[in-house]
Amino acid sequence: MLNDQGRPTAPVRNGDDSDTRGTFTGNRALAQEEALIFEIGRVGTTGVDIEEPTAFAPRLGGLARQDGIGLPGLSEPEAVRHYVRLSQQNYGIDTGLFPLGSCTMKHNPRLNEALARLPGFADIHPLQPLSTVQGALALFDELSRWLRELTGAEAIALPPKAGAHGEFCGMAAIKAAIAARGEAATRTVVLVPDSAHGTNPATAALLGFSVRPVPARADGTVDAAAVAAALGPDVAAIMLTNPNTCGLFERDVRAIAHAVHEAGAFFYCDGANFNAIMGKVRPMDLGVDAMHLNLHKTFSTPHGGGGPGAGPVALSGRLAAFAPLPYLKQDGETFTLVEDEASAREAGAAPLGRLTAFHGQAGVFVRALAFMLSHGADGLRQASEDAVLNANYIRASLGNLMSVAFDRPTMHEVLFDDAWLKGTGVTTLDFAKALIDEGYHPMTVYFPLVVHGAMLVEPTESESKASLDLFIATLRDLAHSALAGETERFTGAPHYAPRSRLDETRAARQPVLRWAPPP
């Protein structure tokens, strides 16, 4: 029975209901039941010996804590076991195929990790004298060179720490450029296609723009004529994802860019799907003015759970002068950072300001450059080709059972809708949760919103044909069960996970953030 703490405190039996034996501990061999750390902690137990503090005069006044700190007490082995057991209940890219569409969860080579842990990168501090970190700055410069070559950009802004932060940076540069032209009061609208990432309209609104949607065509792409009809002297920019969130390349991108520029606006491209075109297409050659790059997606750095991430922004010649502070400058063999606006303006720049205290996520930079150097230009191109090949292999292998939203060759991800589930009593969510029982993380579901009951699958280039074949066979088996009316396989799934189906909507809207002992 669930209590008001939002989770079962008693062990939950999973598996074959015909096995009524159960176990005394609630564990099932190596599938161990793990209570909350507060439930297993004890008062007066600690794995650390701390001496009593000497006499001191507190300076907190009325803010001083009056009660105990309330942390659970465990011995050191108990604490280690707790977190190891929790880690064993996690799914990650080292566990199996991670088919999240639009997220690019690819293999993370351990070479990258080894290089990021070299003392010259891992043990430095952002406040060290620049003369002592020239190697790290040289790496930043080399990374920027690779990113400029891959995108065709004039400049790379390294400070943004993730995709949404990069979006903010690129759109802030556009806003600064518009202000420099004296049009800040008139160009207040940003065009956002219906298939865009949800962060796109949010970023535009955060910067004070109003959002004007652009509908998608029946084939899932944006019509240049629809963009032209939405343009006017009040439009500052368009935010377009290419390839788009339906996994399709926007074939009219040049015509869209031309119309946008003719109207005096700017073209921002969401770079979340760069893994499909890396080494194949340079976005700036298509007319893009600004595009963020998810280093933690395209260039293999692990991500998820809030980080780490890095979202450098590629800027065209129209926007390069507005890159944020700090940025790198090379004087002969010496690298420096331009930290203040006065110095930047003396050099002819007009920086939009400072986005973060320091110069981005250095550890991610090391991993990303290691990925680039180990692949080389031809290897990066092949990674994109293989990602597209893998997605189309899945599309071709499942298209006769599961309805493909847009029946045409896709890019790095394939999008299914729920039309094939009509009349089965099985929903997209049911199907995704049943995939957990088969040992897979579910694909992205109900996104993009332009497709009903969407199931978005991105295999990336990391997966072998053998792993793809097993994944495809699993989906086909689930599909056959759904079409055969075997709803018990799906209702309430997952059945074998440590916890069964949760009320995710209630958890999001009524989160229980503080544990209290049961009465």
Automatic annotation (TrEMBL):
Region (Disordered): 1-24
Catalytic reaction list: N(6)-[(R)-lipoyl]-L-lysyl-[glycine-cleavage complex H protein] + glycine + H(+) = N(6)-[(R)-S(8)-aminomethyldihydrolipoyl]-L-lysyl-[glycine-cleavage complex H protein] + CO2
A Pfam family it matches: Aminotran_5
InterPro entries associated with the record: Aminotrans_V_dom, GDC-P_C, GDC_P, PyrdxlP-dep_Trfase, PyrdxlP-dep_Trfase_major, PyrdxlP-dep_Trfase_small
Domain of life, source organism: Bacteria
E.C. number(s) listed in UniProt: 1.4.4.2
Enzyme class, spelled out: oxidoreductase
Residue ranges of every copy of the Aminotransferase class V domain listed in the record: 187-304
Keyword Oxidoreductase: yes
Domain Glycine dehydrogenase C-terminal, first and last residues per copy: 383-479
Biological role: The glycine cleavage system catalyzes the degradation of glycine. The P protein binds the alpha-amino group of glycine through its pyridoxal phosphate cofactor; CO(2) is released and the remaining methylamine moiety is then transferred to the lipoamide cofactor of the H protein.
Protein name, per record: glycine dehydrogenase (aminomethyl-transferring)
